[in-house]
Design goal:
2 copies of one chain form a homodimer. Chain A has 133 residues and is an alpha+beta fold. Chain A contains 6 helices and 4 strands. In chain A, the strands form 2 sheets. A two-stranded antiparallel ribbon of chain A has the order 1-2. A two-stranded antiparallel sheet of chain A has the order 3-4. In chain A, strand 1 and strand 2 (35-38) form a beta hairpin. At the A-B interface, helix 1, strand 1, strand 2, helix 4 and strand 3 of A face helix 1, strand 1, strand 2, helix 4 and strand 3 of B.
Chain lengths: 133, 133
C-alpha cells in the first residue's frame, strides 16, 4: 500500500457518500471511570419511556429488546443520585413506567446542551462541512 | 424483571463507577448519507500523522495496524474535497507523510468546535454532572 492520496478512483460506497450532503451531529457522553453513564442512546430511551408510558412499549418503539431497555435503565438508575424511571401502579392503563423529576431534568439538560453547542459552533461547523461537500 | 428503580443493591462495576467523578465529553461526527466521514478517531489519527511524520509511526503511536490507519486516511481523502494527507519524498527522514493544508484545517476546526461547545455549555454540563456525582 502506498500513499492514500495517490489512489483516487472512488469505491462505490465512497462515491455514494461523496454525493450526499454532510450532516454534523454532536454527541455528548458522560463517563464515570471507564463506564459510560449517559449518552445519546440512553437519552433516546428515556424519551421513549416518557412518550410511551412503559418500558416495554418504549423498547418496542426503538426496536430494542425489553431486557436490554430494562438493563440500560437499571444502570442509569444506579449511576445517578436519584432514579430516572419509576413504576406507576393502577390507573386507566393498569400501570407502567414514567420518568422521575430527575429523569425529566436529565433529558431536558442533555437536549438543551446539544442545541446550545450546535448554535455556538454554527460558523465553524459550516466551514467543516464545506471541506466535505 | 420488575421496575429498575426497585432493585437498589449496586453491582461491583456500578459501585466503582458511582465513586468516580463524572466527565463530560463532546464528540462531533460528520456523516454523508450513512457513511461516517469525520469523527474523533479520524481526527486523532490525523494529529498522530502530523506529529509523527509518517502513517506507520502514527499507527504505532495509536496502537493501530498500519492497514487500518491507511484505510481510514484513504477514506478521508475520498470524502473530502481535497486530500488530507500527502507523501513527502526524500529529505533527512527519507520520506514519510504529512497533512495537507486541508488536513491541518480539518483538525484545527474540529478541535476549536469541541472547545467552543464545551465553553458555551459549561453551566448546563455542570448541572448534568451534578445529577451523577
Amino acid at each position: 500500500m502506498s500513499d492514500p492520496a495517490a489512489r483516487k478512483a472512488p469505491a462505490p460506497a465512497a462515491r455514494q457518500a461523496a454525493e450526499a450532503a454532510a450532516v454534523a451531529r454532536f454527541r455528548l457522553r458522560l463517563t464515570k471511570g471507564t463506564h459510560i453513564a449517559v449518552g445519546p442512546g440512553r437519552i433516546e430511551l428515556l424519551e421513549a419511556v416518557r412518550d410511551a408510558g412503559s418500558i416495554i412499549a418504549a423498547a418496542s418503539d426503538l426496536g430494542m429488546s425489553y431486557r436490554r431497555a430494562w438493563m440500560l435503565l437499571d444502570d442509569l438508575n444506579r449511576c445517578l443520585r436519584a432514579p430516572v424511571v419509576e413504576s406507576v401502579h393502577g390507573g386507566a392503563q393498569g400501570g407502567g413506567s414514567r420518568l422521575t423529576a430527575t429523569g425529566l431534568e436529565l433529558v431536558r439538560l442533555y437536549r438543551r446542551i446539544e442545541q446550545t453547542a450546535a448554535r455556538a459552533c454554527g460558523e465553524d461547523i459550516e466551514a467543516l462541512k464545506a471541506l466535505l461537500d
